[in-house]
User: Fold these one by one.
Assistant:
Number 1:
Amino acid sequence: MQRVLIVGADAAGMSAAHQMLRTAGGTGRELAVTVIDRGQHTSYSACGIPYWISGEVDSGDDLVARTAEEHRDAGIEMRLGTEAVAADLAARELTLADGEVLEFDELVVATGAEALIPEWALDASGELLPGVGPVKTLNDGAAWLDRFEEAGSGSHVVIVGAGYIGVEVAEAALRRGVGVTVVTRGHGLASLEPALQERVSLAMCDAGAEVVLEAEVTGLDVVDGRVAGVRWTGGEREADLVVLAAGVRPATGFLAGSGVPLGPRGHLRPDPHGRVCEHVWAAGDCCEVRRRLDDSWVFRPLGTHANKHGRALGDSLAGGSLAFGGVTDTSVTRFAACEEYLEIARTGLSLAEANAAGFDPVAVTTEGSTASGYMPDADPISLWVLADRPTRRLLGVQVIGGRGAGKRIDAAAAVLWHGGTVDDLAWMDLAYAPPFATAWDVLQVAARRVAERL
Amino acid sequence: MQRVLIVGADAAGMSAAHQMLRTAGGTGRELAVTVIDRGQHTSYSACGIPYWISGEVDSGDDLVARTAEEHRDAGIEMRLGTEAVAADLAARELTLADGEVLEFDELVVATGAEALIPEWALDASGELLPGVGPVKTLNDGAAWLDRFEEAGSGSHVVIVGAGYIGVEVAEAALRRGVGVTVVTRGHGLASLEPALQERVSLAMCDAGAEVVLEAEVTGLDVVDGRVAGVRWTGGEREADLVVLAAGVRPATGFLAGSGVPLGPRGHLRPDPHGRVCEHVWAAGDCCEVRRRLDDSWVFRPLGTHANKHGRALGDSLAGGSLAFGGVTDTSVTRFAACEEYLEIARTGLSLAEANAAGFDPVAVTTEGSTASGYMPDADPISLWVLADRPTRRLLGVQVIGGRGAGKRIDAAAAVLWHGGTVDDLAWMDLAYAPPFATAWDVLQVAARRVAERL
């Protein structure tokens, strides 16, 4: 009987746990699977938390895909509220916060990521100031519901960071009638090219938010132990609440000195089967993933990668051969508040990444329509397409637009997955009917325009 | 100066005309381009006609992408209201209905398709009975607006045929408050597998339509020279109007005896550059197209193929090298009336086609959600996925569901374009966020379920 110890009871860890038991049923491996997690929740959708805060989702329970009880019913030992504090690979031991030592034959690290907490967010005793917090766990979500409830609809929140979480929480706050300021170091929404970033910023402003670009938060004004304002390079404003959405880091502190190899920023770098080194496996937000286009390691803490890599890991650990083939850097979100509605998506490399990887990239931005122009539902859509001049290879696509814009990125992601060219994207057989597209889908018009410039 | 004569002023012909002039600007070819068309309209969206009839589109003019005047401004000679009745390839001559003979160096056939008109739809003099007609041209659309207007909202229409046009016209009639009966020889919506067909039929019934399957219309009841009822094998009903939507055929009658090679059903079979034989080119709905999956000729009269093949033809004729790489048999439509909303799409082979092509196909139908289940916009979606057992190659995907279901087919179409496997579809990097997908997109869940059965 192999003792498998999984640290982390969310997407990657629980996908791995279930898949290894399924696969073991076929391969005949005998596995005793124990999962530990410092929290009390399992298999929940962290991506859904902004929609819980906004009121679109009724309850935090709705975000839980499977409870601990359901996992136990599948034959998995679940030890929640249990934090790992140290590991010893040579001894194959994991030490818990209460001093207990667990032995393992195989260790699966699926601890995910934790929010970056700046110094200025903490009080003298190192605790988060009241009214300040990240949006990462179900507990964070519950805390934000309480904070927004208490502050009321006339209050103001400053969101630090304009990544997807920043944009989604801005949407949630605006829907609750709370004033919003977004402050970011960047030029706009982090993962888009300048040609498209501005449209996101404009939509947020049209919805009543204030957007402060290229600014670094320097500190908070604290009155009577509560946040009263936020100061940044070049400005300040009164505020009741502060959302920390400036990034996350892998939760791998307990592996320091363990003998498990960590990447330069504390990430694990498992192979497509989830193997890190002998007896150690990892998947999910504590890992970097392999980007197929430039064969580089990137940190993309997303539930969809965690689910896939976790499943491949579980299968491989139990003797199967499923592999996670890496990413093409695809993502999607939306900004929908106060009459504004934008879908935002990207796949592939940015211009800077393409240059860094040695490509000779050509980019064109194209304006079009999500449906045939004469249809009442037709909305504007902007596409940015990037290709390599000598090989004509498609390198990246970014899109912003109305309903139906976002998931259009999937066809481009499929071309990237296959290493296809911009001509493939331009000429392939995408679905056309007036409610859904123009006769040349706008994705293909955009690809054709790049093709003509190579 | 090469005399190029294009017969047909719609998507294929006008795409070809404009592209050959653009390309000639670079290659230095000198082209005199003349377009003739028996109608008075150019470059219009036939696919948009049902939405004009429904009232979603205000005017037939909205469906015209470019007018004759705009084409003339680009240097193209437009001769409308001019019908070609015969051709002589050896003499390079085209004869018009008025007896005039036009000489050409290159002939481009882009005459499209014409509706099949059954004998029972005609009066003794061979004219369409009042209240009966197809939905193919702008003139047809205008006639239908008049007929629905005259018949009023209490009237009843029988639609003969349950292809995409049949479904779309049913939607239009229901939206106008007209009673609808759809009669088809088939088991349901023509281009879907039985597993999904039933959902379309049920949605149409829930919207108040009557659906009669596996029935052949045998004749009309005519009272005072007008339609009063429709009879079919096994039934009949009173009706004021009859839509002929049981198919189209290539409008190539004028090529009989011309020396231009025609396929078994009167279709042209141009190569990827639009070449049929020396001095003759063709594209659009008068042609069959090459299906990549089984390398077969199929008749798929769709505007998107006409636009693409027309452009490749125009470029090639003028010395360029653009090629139309064939189709993967992708299409999409919707049925949206009386609180019902369904998006319907397919790509690739049917089970019967896969068997006929010598594959060893495995199909699985999967139920899922268009968005994360806890989101208010999440709608049911059903996917049918077909793969080849020995090679694991993806062969086809069909989908039915709520908003966001239809264009999901594009990612599958991209995999088919590249000859990818069901594993590619299952593991590639599709966009995930709760408003748009589940953590494993339902397309990937469906692919995975097939992969597990191979």
Note: Chain B has eleven helices and 26 strands.
Number 2:
Amino acid sequence: MSFLWEDKIRVVEPYTPGEQPQKNNVIKLNTNENPYGPSDEIKKIINNLSADDFRKYPDPTSESLVSELAAFHNVDKSRVFVGVGSDDVLAVSFLTFFNSDKPILFADITYSFYPVWADLFKVPYKVCKLDDDFRIKTEDYLTDNGGVIIANPNAPTGIYFDKSEIIKILEYNKSSIVIIDEAYIDFAEDGSSCIDLIDRYDNLLITRTFSKSRSLAGLRIGYAIGNEALIKYMNDVKYSFNSYTMNYAALTLGSAVIKDNDYFENVISKIKATRERFSQELQDRGFKVLPSSTNFVFACHEKYSAEEIFNAAKKKQIYFRFFKQSRIDNFLRITIGKDEEMDEVIRFLDSYIK
Amino acid sequence: MSFLWEDKIRVVEPYTPGEQPQKNNVIKLNTNENPYGPSDEIKKIINNLSADDFRKYPDPTSESLVSELAAFHNVDKSRVFVGVGSDDVLAVSFLTFFNSDKPILFADITYSFYPVWADLFKVPYKVCKLDDDFRIKTEDYLTDNGGVIIANPNAPTGIYFDKSEIIKILEYNKSSIVIIDEAYIDFAEDGSSCIDLIDRYDNLLITRTFSKSRSLAGLRIGYAIGNEALIKYMNDVKYSFNSYTMNYAALTLGSAVIKDNDYFENVISKIKATRERFSQELQDRGFKVLPSSTNFVFACHEKYSAEEIFNAAKKKQIYFRFFKQSRIDNFLRITIGKDEEMDEVIRFLDSYIK
């Protein structure tokens, strides 16, 4: 069927999010959620949300949330932007910062939303091939461009890219915006974030999310930190798209969770410990596991096909993520769940790999 | 200060939302919120939200909410799109449907976000002047264009545009998308919505919001209803911008509120009754009041300046909306609050207009 108005449509190939099975009793290790729920403190706040406050528009400036984030990261409030998950923050960033005829640069194997945003906003792009160990080659980014975006740690590989290399890229690209997508940085080593570089580089934007380390994927909060001029331009675009993006629940719970830092540190430690143990268990069973600085591992088996393991696991209600994409189509991305969930995965693998 | 990267920025003049004073004890009649909070039923659901469900990504398809809306409007689920307030829905609509070199058409006096979205996405537009009674002239829209958007009832005028005139516009514009923004339609007469026309016109999109009649501005829910092909194109764009826009609270409460229709009908009746009484009170005091089909009135006084009344009211903690815009810069837009709030407004006016 065709319509008389079809020539006026923006036709795009959308991003495909990981499956969200609506049934219970699944081991869901496909979207890098945090297996530990919000703290008891947060639960209390959830159950005391004021119904009457839903009647009014939320604060469009998200002042309470922005202030808590600014205090947490020890930056001025003018350097913080908040949005509906880091996807919203990144979409706004692409729209705000990538408006050049020159291509923006990102890796061939990275967050698969980058080319989707580029296509949506008609931003030209060039993919830079990771090396054979799935590492970024710095020199690929030392070339004229319309902008740079690097996920660090990278997804789905889990690999951390050294900060000294990012500095080289920032130094070269002073006339482009460089976005470092730090969705998973809380699972890397302390001090590996680039947030402390925003004073030195006015072209640097860091993006973050509450969906992984902060156990609040269902609340949809992401944020960006950068020079106040960058944040101002982003806010102008945000206010030109939707003034009130953060609902009352997100503002209230989001502000509280930042103050709840001990719980969060504890959860991260547990996940890192499980990750190390699980990585070893996989290696003991013939898997090659890339070094992970995230809450997932990216692994391939020397003999068994990733797609077949993926399908067999799904039949047992265990969900991994599999990307049918050149160079990584024999890898599985497995979120780190609770210890008992990973034990169940190991039992499944032991029965599959005889 | 200037930056080396500034040539790559999308520089826009953002929309300015109505003020959201964070203090209590104000009479807030500036953003057309509903003075009656959510029902007791909804309050119960709010206080029983499951904290653990915030850990997981929400359903990206918003199935529960979409199903309830489809059932309520008696349309197929494939004809419903949901977003973070109708601003989000409209932003996605502009991006999806207005991609022509020909100008889109909208009124000179209407929702002031339309030109902002057009500028953001570089959509050419032509404003069509309302007549001297602030009514739409149908013939202005019977001309070659890149799309049409009409707020009905219109804001800030509050005036309803007859459905038979919209049909003429739809008939003429079969090769453009025509958006009817029905944010305020629940305060107009029964049967005045254009939703029943979607079977006849595959180029018609209706947008709606939970922020006015449904008392949930703080939850951020809007939706669109139209031909399944339109909705599919919008969803492709939405999934190319942000897969998970609706958080767990919005999905859970949004679905429940649709079922809570008796409460909602009752609230609307009360607001309409207050509107009629208040309009009369204003007229008794020398105001000209445009006929309102919304939850606000648009009024100008024969002797006193709107801007001065606006400022004087604000000093008394009464917030109206004033637009410093040609043709309407002697009008006040006053949201219909509770009866006691409108009585307070009348007392203020009586003291001001001596």
Note: The radius of gyration of chain A is 21 Å.
